[in-house]
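Please predict the structure of the following assembly.
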Amino acid sequence: MPSPAPARPEPAADAPLLAAPLLEVQDLAKHYPLPGRWFGMAAGVRAVDGVSFAIGRQETFGLVGESGSGKSTIGRMIARLIDPSGGRIRFQDRDWLALSGAALRRERRRVQMVFQSPYASLDPRWRVADIVAEPLRTHLRLPAAERRDRVAELLQAVGLDPAVADRHPHQFSGGQRQRIGIARAIALEPELLIADEPVSALDVSVQAQILALLQEIKARRRLSMLFISHDLSVVAYLCDRVGVLYHGRLVELAPTRALFDAPRHPYTRALLAAIPGSGRRREAAPPTAPAGAAPEGCAYAGRCPHARDLCRGAAPSLRPDPAGGWVACHRAGEI
Ligand SMILES: Nc1ncnc2c1ncn2[C@@H]1O[C@H](COP(=O)(O)OP(=O)(O)OP(=O)(O)O)[C@@H](O)[C@H]1O
């Protein structure tokens, strides 16, 4: 018999949503069964587990967490590249998960992704012009001459000379390739850009340039952005608010400044302390997200210096914090 899913805490009724958001994610989940086992949820990986947040118009929302915490899975579910196991996504007040077939193909242009690796995400056989023009051809069916003009415009918008349109990706540096990826992502004038670790494969020297480009494009085109990163210092530069993920769950969500000035969750504190030169005292071992099924209690209890029996027995839900953010910690009020 497949084992039943263990009881999960209900999300707080007043989960961190906004008055008139562009995107609203509620109780989102993605569970993967472990290979060779019965498909009982308890036996699988809870890659994402009951995540709720919203992104406002022209807001940049950061999702931060260690490798394996579920960041990319959330981004890919919002972009409709993979289907959730549960939960709801509303985009512009519409049921985003109800879209299928032609309607999905038509609507998904509103949400576009910039991927981590500018090496893997660009087909080496294609010319830059074809890479950037591809969404224009398939979604808008623009005639060739208009496509050429539009490609030139897009290359300029990302700081590239339109004369490079005839070259192939291998003729560019990593930073330039990421610019090409950004040009392709904005070609259809999306309303939400999902940037999944867009600078982590790049040399440190070019990371700042790409972040500045994303910031400029976001402001000029009045986009909203979901910015995914394992690096809190990068998130601090770009994001208005930040959600901290641990083991598939949001453990803290707050305006960026508040999160950095007064982190509430012990995991957020550990992440901040791990930033070189942060001057923060380390409270626990460097944070790494454990693989496998979450324990019944708080997933962070095993490495949390503040954990008590309560933390090991029941998972805390995300609750509003008097300081203005949201935190999922039984002891947030005491520590
Ligand atoms: N197709 C899949 N089948 C099984 N497990 C998966 C699959 N995709 C992701 N996972 C698991 O889901 C969890 C979350 O993965 P995800 O890639 O979303 O994390 P992440 O925070 O983006 O990490 P990274 O930065 O390393 O990509 C991980 O434990 C991962 O192994």
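The chain is about 30% helix and 20% strand. The domain at 23-239 is CATH 3.40.50.300 (Rossmann fold).
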